[in-house]
Recover the amino acids of this structure.
């Protein structure tokens, strides 16, 4: 068959093994997506009904790409495959089966903001300290419990959990969880974690439902299996129990989501669940050069807890990985920005060929400033999603309320937006009436004369009538007609149109963009239903990655390493490789945490196709204080055969003016030669690939530097012996530029420097 011809032997064997339990261990860049899509196509080509195939992914983007590839082989039959993220697939099932567990089929899906808003309301009602019971912390605690299938009732009975809460001074967490659960249920709402938690409840308490879907899904495939949590693991295991035609695909070396509840043991112990397992290893990396692949192998070999594999590349050998040291994070940003300009010019690249990866979002500041100074366009991944913008959430809240009037969070959001005379006092009266009469907020709002005083009822009545009119319209018309009507008649569109500021214009244009998207949805020919309810099912499950309006824009990509997973770029810079930053200080308490950090570094390295640069700073500001930094242990763990070390400091000679020559502190070239090819620097081989630490003179004691002058010789306890070549600034923030014999030029803030004056 044509589609099998381009596969290597390991890939082809994995595609053709369609029966029984299968595990495909897919190394980075090994053609994993091709194997999954061809395996599904092979099933269909061999007579399997696509309605009987379930493919679970971790992003909508991955599911869309796979479906398009499968269509190229089998045609429109690919549309009949059950394919999507865990949350989208099981939300679809819950829409059909929710009545079994007491939920309406039109239940609302709360996003993280909705959940935290509800938690804050509960904290206020319970009169709890919102600093001790921080909404983010409480949400995380509830989320972790659900991912481990611990209900609110079980949470309250678990002695270990209760002891943890008591010791942390948060004895009310169990009650908050219970109240949160009750309020979600009353509002006919599920949060993201509920989509998996409630699916587990459904198939555990209703065996007839489990049997229905076991019979339906005769073949299961799970992508990125190393990232599954306990809840996902159990669902997959139960669905596959009847036929055991289950195929999981993943790479334990890329398991980096333990903080979200992912359990690497799911893939490491898969064979225990299925003793007759067929294992296929995809070990050829088609993405990266040999040097990059070999360096990645050398770092991950330090992990003890892993599935052994021999990833290799038959691509060109490629450049060695450049390791560069900067004095500060600002200098690091400057060096990266200038290197991007240089390589773009010399190698005829585009800005979109470059990515800058960092461990924490805060590191983007120095990078952004440096890119802006050189007019380099960039995009930060993981920023505000289109669907998380206030004006979009406002209109979406109207849609949610129209479809599910019991959605309390949506009601609270829009009952007085645009302003209609229903202030905080009136809203509080609605809450009190609902509590007194044991009614939902909507029952009060839709019949205000019966429950509220005359003045409040008069203000609330038009709002309730308006929502009821939207509900009537929604049942008769397509999504776009309903959405446009709601935008206009709610007053939202008029309110935004009247704001003539730049921000107001942007918000108005964003609403127009949303309506354009709904118009496009309403005219799609590949779906049968075009109602607002169908559109909203998709919107509720969108992630930031799904909302990229222009993925082909020519911009440098900035992102955390976690956000980079699944992406690839010709040139990659991994910045901030310092102890306590990467690996994170929080990861140094246990071997398992440290190994996860190492897997994160492995993921970062394997994003690069042609060229990889690692950088670290020897000083970095944290909380307003300049701290000295040590290079990351991960640099030492890389095999030096694949590295090219380059000091960031030129051996600059002091000029007659006491400053320094026009030598740029950077990548080995002068500032007047930015676009010329830098001269390679050969670093001496040592036991460690990093410069040896200086051993201070016996009895080392810092001197009083208030009288320090240019030309004086000094000793630093870490940097060794040097000579002062420049002083600038005013007390107490005087900076000294010092030329150290071993390290080159450094600029130090005297009040922190700890220097011993020699003469």
């Amino acid at each position: 068959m044509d589609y099998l011809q381009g596969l290597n032997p390991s890939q082809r064997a994995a595609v053709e093994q369609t029966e029984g339990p299968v595990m495909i261990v897919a190394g980075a860049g090994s053609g994993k997506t091709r194997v999954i899509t061809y395996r599904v196509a092979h099933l269909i080509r061999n007579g399997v009904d696509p309605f009987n195939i379930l493919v679970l992914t971790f992003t909508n983007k991955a599911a869309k790409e796979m479906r398009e590839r499968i269509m190229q082989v089998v045609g429109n039959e690919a549309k009949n495959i059950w394919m999507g993220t865990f949350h989208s697939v099981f939300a679809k099932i819950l829409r059909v089966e929710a009545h079994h567990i007491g939920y309406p089929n039109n239940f609302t899906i709360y996003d993280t903001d909705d959940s935290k808003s509800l938690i804050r309301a509960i904290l206020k009602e319970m009169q709890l300290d919102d600093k001790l019971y921080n909404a983010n912390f409480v949400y995380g605690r509830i989320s972790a419990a659900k991912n481990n299938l611990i209900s609110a009732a079980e949470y309250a009975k678990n002695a270990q959990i209760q002891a943890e809460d008591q010791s942390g001074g948060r004895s009310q967490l169990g009650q908050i969880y219970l109240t949160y659960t009750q309020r979600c249920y009353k509002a006919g709402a599920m949060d993201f974690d509920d989509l998996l938690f409630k699916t587990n409840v459904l198939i555990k308490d209703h065996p007839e439902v489990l049997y229905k879907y076991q019979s339906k899904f005769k073949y299961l495939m799970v992508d990125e299996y190393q990232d599954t949590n306990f809840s996902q693991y159990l669902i997959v295991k139960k669905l596959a129990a009847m036929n055991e035609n289950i195929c999981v695909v993943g790479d334990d070396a890329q398991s980096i989501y333990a903080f979200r509840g992912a359990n690497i043991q799911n893939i490491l112990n898969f064979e225990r669940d299925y003793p007759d397992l067929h294992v296929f290893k995809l070990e050829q990396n088609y993405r990266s050069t040999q040097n990059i692949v070999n360096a990645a192998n050398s770092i991950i070999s330090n992990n003890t807890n892993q599935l052994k594999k021999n990833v290799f590349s038959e691509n060109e050998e490629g450049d060695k990985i450049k390791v560069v040291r900067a004095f500060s994070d600002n200098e690091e940003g400057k060096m990266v920005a200038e290197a991007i300009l240089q390589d773009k010019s010399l190698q005829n690249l585009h800005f979109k060929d470059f990515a800058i990866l960092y461990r924490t979002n805060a590191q983007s500041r120095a990078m952004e400033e440096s890119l802006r100074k050189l007019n380099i366009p960039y995009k930060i991944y993981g920023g505000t999603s289109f669907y998380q913008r206030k004006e979009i959430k406002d209109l979406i809240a109207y849609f949610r309320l129209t479809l599910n009037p019991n959605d309390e969070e949506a009601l609270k959001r829009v009952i007085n937006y645009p302003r209609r005379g229903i202030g905080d006092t009136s809203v509080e009266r609605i809450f009190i009436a609902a509590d007194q009469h044991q009614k939902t907020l909507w029952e009060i709002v839709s019949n205000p004369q019966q429950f509220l005083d005359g003045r409040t009822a008069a203000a609330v009545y038009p709002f309730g009538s308006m929502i009821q009119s939207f509900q009537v319209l929604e049942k008769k018309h397509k999504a776009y007609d309903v959405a446009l009507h709601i935008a206009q008649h709610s007053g939202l569109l008029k309110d935004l149109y009247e704001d003539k500021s730049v921000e107001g214009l942007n918000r108005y244009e964003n609403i127009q963009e949303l309506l354009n998207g709904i118009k496009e949805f309403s005219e799609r020919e590949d779906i049968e239903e075009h109602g607002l309810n169908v559109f909203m099912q998709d919107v509720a499950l969108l992630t930031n990655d799904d909302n990229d309006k222009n993925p082909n824009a020519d911009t440098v990509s900035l992102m955390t390493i976690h956000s980079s997973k699944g992406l690839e770029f010709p040139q990659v810079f991994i910045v901030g490789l310092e102890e306590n930053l990467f690996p994170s200080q929080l990861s140094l308490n246990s071997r398992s945490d440290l190994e996860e950090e190492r897997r994160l570094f492995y993921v970062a390295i394997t994003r690069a196709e042609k060229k990889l640069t690692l950088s670290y700073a020897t000083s970095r500001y944290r909380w307003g204080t300049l701290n000295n930094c040590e290079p990351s242990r991960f640099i030492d763990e890389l095999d030096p055969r694949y590295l090219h070390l380059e000091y960031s400091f030129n051996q600059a000679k002091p000029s007659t003016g006491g400053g320094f020559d026009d030598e740029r502190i950077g990548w080995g070239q002068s500032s007047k030669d930015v676009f010329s090819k830098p001269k390679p620097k050969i670093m001496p081989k040592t036991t460690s690939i990093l410069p040896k630490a200086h051993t201070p003179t016996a009895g080392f004691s810092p001197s009083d530097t208030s009288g320090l002058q240019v030309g004086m010789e000094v000793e630093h306890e870490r940097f060794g012996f040097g000579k002062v070549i420049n002083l600038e600034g005013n007390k107490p923030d005087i900076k000294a530029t010092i030329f150290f014999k071993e390290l080159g030029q450094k600029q130090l803030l005297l009040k922190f420097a700890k220097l011993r004056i020699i003469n």
Remarks:
- The chain has 32 helices and 22 strands.
- Confidence is low (pLDDT under 50) at residues 648-690.
- The CA atoms of residues 426 and 455 lie 9 Å apart.
